[in-house]
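Encode chain A's predicted structure.
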Amino acid sequence: MKSAYELAMERLEREQGPSRKLTDEQKAAIGEIESKYQARVAETRLGYESRIAAAESYEQLNQLRTEMAGELQRLESKFEEDKAAVWNAG
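Encoded structure for chain A:
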């Protein structure tokens, strides 16, 4: 008897076609991309957190938090685009 997970995976494969396997080169490329973006996210957070700590008003604090959230979202989107490019290259 199949588990719910196995049944769901079979259904997904029928709907989307067979899943592709990553080559070792693609795995390495995605690992490099992930490391690069993790470093950028950490750098961005540190930069904004120091500016947030020095904020002199509530409005400035909110603006910095909004900017940081936008920058982190932009980095996440770029990360997903770069990862998809590696997936689609294979």
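The chain is about 85% helix and 0% strand.
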